[in-house]
Amino acid sequence: MRTTTDGAIGVAHSDAPRPGAIVLMSPTIFERVWGPAERRRLAKRLDVIGTPGADLGRYTPEQLASAQFLITGWGAPPLDGLPAMPNLKLVLHAAGSVRSLATPEFWRRGIPVVSAIEENTRPTAEFASAEIVYALKRGWHAAARLRRTRDWDASLPSSGIVGSTVGLVSLGRVGRLVAARLASIGGIRILAFDPYSDAVPGVEFVDLNRLFEESDVVSLHTPITPETVGLVGEAQLRSLKEGATLINTSRGAIIDEAALVRTLRARPDLFAALDVTESEPLAPDSALYDLENVILTPHIAGSSGRELHALAHAVMDQYDLHRRGALVRSVGADDRPIAVRLAPTAG
């Protein structure tokens, strides 16, 4: 069993040969995703060549040719056709989307990619769902008013959860999980804007303007594309209901930030809970820091801490399925799941 020069991967305590693998990702992120238990699991199954890093140029032609598996994550460079790795069978991506990872040249080789996108989606959906429920209780409104007035009677402006309306902008993986969680609570009318989504039970599809006009809470789950930059502008923001809350856990550029500042200044009854901003970190002189009706968090909705370890286990679970000759949950260029079966690998 080969080990890294600094012991970063660990020893499998077995003399049986293991398939070769290269870890192509930021060493710092590797340490965060692959904790001690996850590294031990990796070392029992694969012979990791060298040490984690984001540059394949560090490897000799012989090392590249011997690798059957590539382990990637955040900080990995885009994958081209990888002609230097002729024996590559499977990519294990211990992160979310593969859209920015695999190029058309890579996909043409037909090498399956396993992603932890489902596991990476869950924390964001949980975070957004919690913020939505808190916003429906108007928790931030109450806290701000109590701090300002010291009047406990005036600190309870909530109209409650039952009978409220929540608008979800986009129903991708996160949006659908959020919709399911809200539906399980009961008593919430769920609106959605997504021109590309199929029907979802319990969700009423409306246009973007109507969604903003009728929702007590609007939660954004839109991917960033040229079409979605500035999707939420001044017209939508100004149309929000009295006391409404806007939540963004997707990407900051979805909102026209200047219009958001103007609206929040003009409408102190509104609240914005922003986990993402147009630039990250947010400029020190941004007005968003000083507005009383803004809650900022530093992009923490996604996987963090021990949640990251679930990503490593997710891809190793798929490797174990492959090793047994079972179907593997691969993904395509659009991150949609594809079931594949490869010739099993010993080890």
TrEMBL record:
<dbReference type="InterPro" id="IPR050857">
    <property type="entry name" value="D-2-hydroxyacid_DH"/>
</dbReference>
<comment type="similarity">
    <text>Belongs to the D-isomer specific 2-hydroxyacid dehydrogenase family.</text>
</comment>
<feature type="domain" description="D-isomer specific 2-hydroxyacid dehydrogenase NAD-binding">
    <location>
        <begin position="133"/>
        <end position="301"/>
    </location>
</feature>
<dbReference type="InterPro" id="IPR036291">
    <property type="entry name" value="NAD(P)-bd_dom_sf"/>
</dbReference>
<dbReference type="Pfam" id="PF02826">
    <property type="entry name" value="2-Hacid_dh_C"/>
</dbReference>
<keyword id="KW-0560">Oxidoreductase</keyword>
<dbReference type="InterPro" id="IPR006140">
    <property type="entry name" value="D-isomer_DH_NAD-bd"/>
</dbReference>
<dbReference type="InterPro" id="IPR029753">
    <property type="entry name" value="D-isomer_DH_CS"/>
</dbReference>
<protein>
    <submittedName>
        <fullName>Hydroxyacid dehydrogenase</fullName>
    </submittedName>
</protein>
<keyword id="KW-0520">NAD</keyword>
